[in-house]
Design a protein that fits this description.
Elements: H1 2-10, H2 22-43, H3 50-58, H4 63-80, H5 84-95, H6 100-107, H7 111-131
Helix pairs in contact: 1-2, 5-6, 5-7, 6-7
Length: 136
Amino acid sequence: MQETMLRAWQHPAAFDPARGPARAWLCTVARHLVIDAHRARQARPAEADGEVLERLAEQKPGEDEIEQALQSWAVAEAVRSLSPDHRAVLLETYYRGRTMVEAAQVLGIPVGTVKSRTYYALHALRLALQERGIEP
């Protein structure tokens, strides 16, 4: 209502008595103000309430991503600490998703050797991760 009266006071020349009564003109001004306000709200993102903003402020930006990056570096370092034979077996069976038989064919070793190397490689990897403070 205040904005309607302010607009009428600032632009008195916009009122034309020949077109109708002042009340109708003021209602039209008020209607246009409501439409403009609605369009303005639609044009910008919705405002968040205080609880959402407080939760966002409590979170540290990128904390999860940083933790994941640090953990992946530590895992990569632990994998590099394995012997080449153990790394090769884990690469074929876990990273490339091959079966024991397929890994044996690719590596040119017996299936039993792939199975035992996989067992010992996982054991060594677990120890290497524990030394770095990562609990598998």
